[in-house]
Design goal:
Blueprint lengths: L7 H12 L5 H8 L3 H13 L19 E9 L4 H9 L4 E6 L6 E7 L2 H13 L3 E9 L9 H7 L12
Helix pairs in contact: 1-2, 2-3
Organism: Blastococcus saxobsidens
Keywords: DNA-binding, Transcription, Transcription regulation
GO molecular function, one term: sequence-specific DNA binding
Length: about 170
């Protein structure tokens, strides 16, 4: 099933939730300028579609003591993606991993409390029989943090998303 097209009301609701994460839905509806029932129905639709996937706190791993971060590209043995998936999931310092195109097969975002801890993670990765080669680069600073709202805003269907009778 294709993802539903987002309109400006959906984006406004997501922006309000992003800017006021601890605010109740009644207040979010007031901020956006719609009825609570409208905001509730829209949010439920976004959740069912998987667009909104959680309401947990955003965690800053640097502030939590894991200030050494790196990106590690792995070249893996032919047909070993499932095994690598299990191995990567077992390493707590792997924040995320993506299968990729290009010279590497998987790219991992890694966080560690120190350079020594990062080295231990890299050694653990290289001990895997599924990993043929790894290349790592240490992140010095974050230039653009993870974000989604600019993308959603740029592609939102014009109009408020309300039915023609409510305009």
């Amino acid at each position: 099933m294709p993802a539903p097209a987002l309109d400006m009301l959906d984006v406004a609701l997501l922006e309000a939730l992003h800017e006021h994460p601890r605010t109740g839905l009644q207040e979010i509806a007031r901020i956006v300028g719609v009825a609570r029932a409208t905001a509730t129905a829209r949010l439920q639709r976004l959740e069912r579609a998987g667009i909104v996937s959680g309401f947990g706190p955003e965690i800053d791993v640097t502030a939590a003591g894991f200030g050494v971060q790196a990106f590690v590209t792995l070249e893996i043995a032919q047909g070993a993606l499932e095994e690598v998936h299990r191995e990567l999931a077992a390493i707590p310092g792997i924040l995320e991993a993506h299968a990729t195109t290009g010279s590497g097969d998987v790219i991992c975002r890694v966080a560690a409390s120190s350079h020594e801890s990062l080295q231990q993670i890299l050694v653990q990765l290289n001990r895997s029989a599924s990993v043929v080669r790894s290349t790592s680069v240490v992140a010095l600073s974050c230039v653009v943090p993870w974000r989604t709202l600019p993308l959603l805003r740029s592609e939102a269907a014009p109009g408020s998303g309300r039915s023609p009778s409510s305009r």
